[in-house]
Amino acid sequence: MKIWGMFNGSKSIFVYNSKLQLIFVNESGMKSRGLKDKMLSKEVFKIYGESAEIHHILKSMNNKKSIESKRYSIVDHRGVTHEVESDFHAVYYGNNRFIIEILQEEKNDFMSGFNLNISNTKRKELYDFEDIITSNKLMLKAKKKAYEASKRESDVLIYGETGTGKELIVQAIHRNSKRASEPFIAQNCAAIPKGLFESTLFGTEKGSYTDSEKRKGIFELANGGTVYLDELNSMPMELQGKLLRVLQERKLRRVGGIKEINIDVRIISSINEDFESVLKNKKIRSDLFFRLNIISIELPALRERKEDIPILTRAFIDEFNKKFGTEISGVSHDCMKCLLSYEWPGNIRELRNLIEGVFNNKSSSSIEYQDIKDKIRANNSIAQYDFKKRVQRFEKSLVEEALVLNDNNISKAAQMLNIPRQTLQSKMKKM
Predict the structure, then answer these.
(1) Which CATH number is associated with domain 137-298?
(2) Which sequence spans correspond to the domains of the chain?
(3) In contact, 7 and 25? CB cutoff 8 Å
């Protein structure tokens, strides 16, 4: 169409229709991505795969708004990775809808190993959904649910083991919500000393205790935005009641204060134990749990999404190549086989730390099995030790419960546990 003639210039221009077909590329765009005329009218995912670019195109089209300066990565049909910054503009021409992508910046890099079509480069701003790399069905479901949650205002409760990427999900929810321009404050509940919980969350008034100053807590600091409470199951039970009251009334009092302060925050919280466990073991008050669990999202452990290990490994290699100025191309077959067979008790965080550790002691062009085997063995030993300790703690809790329920009568407790009396006495001595 003649209308596209105005787009011929130095910047690369790509035009997509409502069917996500690439219908126009100027000469600069053809050259940068090695496109050919026969690729016109093809759906964009057939050219670039399931890239973050599609997410921006859809978002711009659905919201009927322009999206400026979005960074992402794609791997084109030649295997070339493009680190890109683009603007996306929604345009209407008659009854037709189009998205015009204008490239602002592009860097190409010929890469070997596993192709990656979503950037995992950490930015100064918050993570977005395209930073969450996965091809796993469970994780894609969680990602979709999180995206839907970003368009609502209800509180969210996330379950995932340590290192599964809970904060990435939370940041993406905030970044895509109507509160995106307001503060986002994350607080790990396990990191707060018990005596400072209330003042950290709700703030203090001058003179409320020795040397105390007038200070806002995280709820006031995040007013209008989002508060993320990580490892909520580590919060003391007595404070959970106060938190529940704040959530219900949307008002708080600083420690030592008498004035009620109105707050407008969205609460996203997470736990690293499954829902049934935290309720059964009374780690979270049931009334607080049901108040926060309006939208629930469960993140699978890395051992449940092993198909993601190759692309996550590729992403971390890219990240540390940039950080250290190296050119490691990928991992060997034996190395990948080892990565895929390992159970990853520390999940994605453990994988990332492993790759970073290799970069600090690596000078050759690829990562070999020899580079990781000792670390994997050491981590395996720690994981097995931790598992034994968890079994011992669980066994001890069962014994204590049986003794309490039977008024410390060992015979009756043994009968309840279905073990000989002598076995129970032996276990009690060890414990």
Answers:
(1) 3.40.50.300
(2) 2-110, 137-298, 383-430
(3) no
